[in-house]
Specification:
This is ABC transporter substrate-binding protein. By secondary structure, the protein is of the alpha/beta class. Helices cover 38% and strands 16% of the residues.
């Protein structure tokens, strides 16, 4: 960040201006409804070890990544957003109209200057690594400017050890953000809908062989320089596997997406393979078709029954990382398990 002192002064002045004008000119008709006025109260939540306090709901929130952007859009908060950044794939159709209303402050990872130009009164991120000196600025720097910063509970499991499921961590995000914005009812509905989807995906888990007979699955996220990146123990796919009654074949590696060898994949000999389609990201080896071709052309992997017999499922790659979209990938996994014959 260049000229931090001057930027800080500018941001402080801008935020003061925003605080005055937002109460009069930036409110929508919904904001001025009796229900909205009743919910426009002080709120306090804890995010990744920091207590955040709000005298009133934010009016100029900035989301630093796609996950946070889509969460705010799912909560119907586009009119309270002053910016988004770091979009990796297309916004889903159901959020497209709302997303079009929000300024894009940076096509990739936002810098401190880009963030400050949006004069935010609240910043939301899916991961804490977006808050660094060479990115948006540290949480401490932004706190000194009276800008609260939120990090998804998924990135800080150590702060809430009682909530171990990535889905429940996401649900806690929705509830906390709903409280901050005075949108508790919308947040509650989103949580209820997604919790029901998780329960439905797990309905047939008891019909799948149990114990050591559980079907094993390899989640192939990407292929970089010819090497596969698969889901490890700490990523969302392990929880998805548990819900549907399967077992992640690389559950013994305590990483989200470790790089392994094709020989190690062959050694695990999974019953089926889930491919994350990252076509929209556009890097070599990202598309599902390229990953299929790599496996069918590999002298060892091509002989695996899962590949030879086409026991392969495709899901959007972005949905294999925790987000408001992840229940969709879980639904595809549950349906695929049934279609492949693993449900009795």
């Amino acid at each position: 960040m260049r000229h931090p002192a001057r930027l800080g002064i500018a941001l402080t002045i801008a935020l003061a201006t925003v605080g005055c004008s937002a109460a009069v000119g930036d409110r929508t008709e919904e904001d001025d409804s009796p229900a909205a006025r009743a919910s426009a109260k002080a709120a306090s939540v804890t995010s990744c070890g920091r207590r955040l306090s709000f005298a009133e709901p934010p009016h100029r929130a900035v989301a630093l990544d796609q996950t946070s952007t889509e969460t705010l859009l799912a909560l119907g908060l586009e009119d309270r957003m002053a910016g988004t950044a770091n979009l990796k794939t297309k916004i889903p159709a159901q959020y497209a109209a709302a997303y079009a209303k929000v300024p894009v402050i940076a096509p990739k990872i936002a810098t401190g200057e880009q963030l400050r130009s949006a004069t935010p009164d609240f910043v939301v991120a899916g991961s804490s690594d977006l808050y660094t000196k060479d990115r948006a600025g540290t949480r401490e720097e932004l706190a000194a400017l009276k800008v609260p910063t939120f990090v998804s509970a998924v990135d800080c499991p150590q702060q809430n050890q009682a909530v171990t499921s990535p889905f429940e961590q996401l649900f806690s995000d929705y509830e906390n953000l709903g409280k901050v914005f005075g949108a508790e009812q919308r947040a509650g509905k989103l949580v209820a809908d997604q919790r029901a989807a998780v329960a439905k995906a797990g309905e047939n888990a008891s019909k799948v062989p149990q114990g050591d007979d559980r079907p094993t699955v390899v989640y192939l996220y990407s292929v970089f320089n010819g090497m596969p990146y698969v889901a490890g123990k700490s990523g969302l796919p392990s929880e998805m596997s548990r819900i549907v009654g399967a077992k992640n074949a690389f559950d013994d590696i305590d990483e989200d997406w470790p790089e392994v060898s094709w020989e190690e994949v062959a050694k695990r000999d999974p019953d089926f393979i889930v491919i994350g389609d990252l076509s929209e990201r556009g890097r070599p080896g990202d598309s599902a078709a390229e990953k299929r071709a790599t496996m069918t052309e590999h002298p060892v992997i091509s002989k695996l029954p899962a590949v030879h017999d086409n026991k392969i499922l495709e899901v959007p790659g972005i949905e294999l990382d925790p987000s408001v979209r992840s229940v969709h990938a879980l639904e595809l996994l549950a349906k695929g398990m049934k279609d492949l014959g693993y449900v009795r």
